[in-house]
């Protein structure tokens, strides 16, 4: 069956791969982003109805992060527009171990629309496509929480799960927790990348108060998701 599916963040780390997989499965994909047609902007709710119009299903990745203030209200607003638009299925990408993200999950679960929650741990791609890439390329990584161990998941695996959840009703009402095969500290990850790439990359443990993130996303991620 051919569905109209809005992939919010459809050029991002997971959305890009979800959109590619859906297209390969002969689905009609609309990219939801500030550069999409029509435009979808999380910061402008007036753009949401047009982006959702005619859509059967929606893959939701929030920007910048479900843990930031304002995320809950945005997810509430989006689900209301989705309900009015006749959307039949929501797949929410959420974060493991985050209370704020779980509140957003609840909104989706109580929206009256079929749903699947994909609750992921940290992405491998945070080091190759996201906030840790610049320090990796600079050869100097300085982060707090140096001894905390975290499992990592690959965005290819997230996209596989999201695809299956979007296309198969047997996943309705489910929460899937996606983690990885082992836990890593930041110094272990940096050492692994240095070994695999043959580059010298130093790691310096710093305190949370010394950590100077350059954006809000940088601030929230290292402190929130470490388990
Ligand atoms: N990183 C992690 O370790 C991790 C772990 C678990 C859960 N999560 C969750 O993953 C979600 C992010 O997913 P992701 O990493 O796949 O996305 P991402 O790569 O951060 O998203 C980039 C995409 O979002 C679009 N975008 C950026 N700002 C936008 C805005 N204001 N309105 C609409 N679209 C916007 C971009 O397109 P344009 O620039 O064209 O707008 C692009 O398509 C977050 O909700 C976070 O809570 C992250």
Tell me briefly what this model is.
With 227 residues, this protein is α/β, with parallel strands linked by helices. The protein has eight helices and eleven strands.
User: What is the N-to-C succession of helices and strands?
Assistant: EHEHEHEHEEHEEHEEHEH
How helical, in percent, are the residues? 25-40%
Instruction: Fill in the CATH topology.
Output: Rossmann fold
Q: In DSSP terms, counting alpha (H) and pi (I) runs of 4 or more, how many helices?
A: 8
Calculate Rg over CA atoms.
18 Å
Mean pLDDT rating? 93
Instruction: Measure the end-to-end span.
Output: 40 Å
Bound molecules: NADP nicotinamide-adenine-dinucleotide phosphate
Topology, number of strands: 11
Description:
This protein is an alpha/beta fold and 227 residues long. The chain has a single domain (4-224), classed as Rossmann fold. The chain is 36% helix and 22% strand. The chain has helices at residues 15-24, 48-52, 71-85, 99-109, 133-138, 155-167, 186-197, 216-224, and strands at 4-8, 28-32, 57-60, 89-95, 114-120, 122-123, 140-143, 150-153, 174-178, 183-184, 202-205. Strands 2-1-3-4-5-9 form a 6-stranded parallel beta sheet, sandwiched between helices. The protein has a 3-stranded mixed beta sheet with strand order 6-8-10. β3 (57-60), α3 (71-85) and β4 form a beta-alpha-beta unit. α1 (15-24) crosses α6 (155-167). The longest helix has 15 residues, at 71-85. It starts with a strand and ends with a helix. The model is unreliable at 215-227 (pLDDT under 50). NADP nicotinamide-adenine-dinucleotide phosphate (NAP) binds at residues 9-15, 33-35, 40-43, 61-63, 65-66, 93, 95, 120, 122-123, 126.
């Amino acid at each position: 069956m051919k569905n109209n599916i809005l992939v919010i963040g459809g050029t991002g780390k997971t959305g890009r791969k979800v959109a590619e997989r859906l297209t390969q499965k002969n689905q009609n994909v609309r990219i939801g982003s500030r550069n999409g047609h029509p435009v979808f902007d999380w910061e402008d709710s007036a753009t949401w109805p047009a982006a959702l119009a005619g859509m059967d299903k929606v893959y939701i990745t929030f920007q910048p992060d479900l843990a930031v203030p304002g995320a809950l209200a945005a997810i509430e607003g989006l689900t209301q527009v989705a309900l009015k638009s006749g959307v039949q299925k929501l797949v929410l990408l959420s974060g493991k171990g985050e209370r704020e993200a779980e509140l957003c999950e609840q909104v989706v679960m109580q929206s009256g629309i079929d749903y699947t929650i994909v609750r992921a741990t940290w992405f491998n791609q945070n080091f190759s496509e996201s906030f840790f890439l610049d320090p990796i390329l600079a050869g100097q990584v300085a982060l707090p929480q140096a001894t905390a161990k975290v499992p990592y998941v690959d965005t290819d695996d997230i996209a596989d799960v999201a695809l299956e959840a979007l296309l198969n009703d047997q996943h309705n009402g489910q929460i899937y927790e996606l983690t990885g095969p082992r836990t890593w500290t930041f110094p272990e990850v940096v050492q692994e990348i240095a070994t695999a790439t043959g580059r010298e990359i130093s790691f310096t443990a710093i305190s949370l108060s010394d950590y100077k993130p350059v954006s809000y996303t940088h601030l929230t991620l290292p402190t929130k998701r470490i388990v």
